[in-house]
């Protein structure tokens, strides 16, 4: 299943400038997802992070991973009217700089599910081309 930005807006409550999923390239609801995010050089954040050598802040990378996991969990309609709340991160590693003009590919899968509490932990990896840029686990609660 592939989704464009308009399809994604029907699933996620996020909007620009905090919508950090441009496309869904592959999706098996409840199992795994592959998304993309274009790191627009015009983003205001690059004026200060860092003016002489701009890189995407790590918190944006983690948010990209969390939003990919949000789509994965919400795409099947199991949580209508719920808000995906980001409640934890673990084991995050930043392995390569993400620069303006890069396109991130985020791959995520469900690692742990506490169905009765609607809490899920997803493992995610972010790539620029074939280079692994970041990994980590994001925990989300549907509320």
Describe the 3D structure.
The model has no long low-confidence stretch (mean pLDDT 96). It is globular and about 50 Å long. It has a 6-stranded antiparallel sheet, covered by helices on one side. The protein has helices at residues 5-9, 58-74; strands spanning 23-28, 32-38, 84-94, 103-114, 119-128, 131-142. It has one domain (5-142): Thiol Ester Dehydrase, Chain A (Roll), CATH 3.10.129.10. The longest helix has 17 residues, at 58-74. It contains 2 helices and 6 strands. The protein has 143 residues and is an alpha+beta fold.
Largest sheet: 6 strands, antiparallel
According to DSSP, the number of beta strands is 6
C-alpha geometry: globular
**Which spans of ≥5 residues are poorly predicted at pLDDT below 50?**
none
What's the SSE pattern?
HEEHEEEE
Kindly report the CATH topology.
Thiol Ester Dehydrase, Chain A
Mean pLDDT: 96
Structural class: alpha+beta
For the termini, the CA-CA separation is: 26 Å
């Amino acid at each position: 299943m592939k989704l464009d930005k308009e399809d994604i807006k029907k699933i996620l409550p996020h909007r620009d400038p905090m919508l950090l999923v441009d496309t869904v390239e592959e999706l098996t609801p409840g199992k795994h997802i592959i998304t993309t995010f274009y790191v627009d050089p015009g983003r205001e954040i690059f004026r200060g992070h860092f003016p002489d050598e701009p890189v995407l802040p790590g918190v944006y990378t983690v948010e990209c991973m969390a939003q990919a996991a949000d789509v994965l969990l919400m795409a099947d309609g199991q949580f209508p009217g719920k808000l995906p709340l980001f409640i934890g991160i673990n084991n995050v590693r930043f392995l390569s700089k993400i620069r303006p003009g890069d396109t991130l590919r985020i791959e995520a899968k469900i690692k742990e599910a506490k169905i009765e509490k609607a809490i899920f932990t997803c493992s995610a990896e972010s790539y620029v081309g074939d280079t692994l840029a970041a990994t980590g686990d994001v925990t989300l609660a549907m509320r």
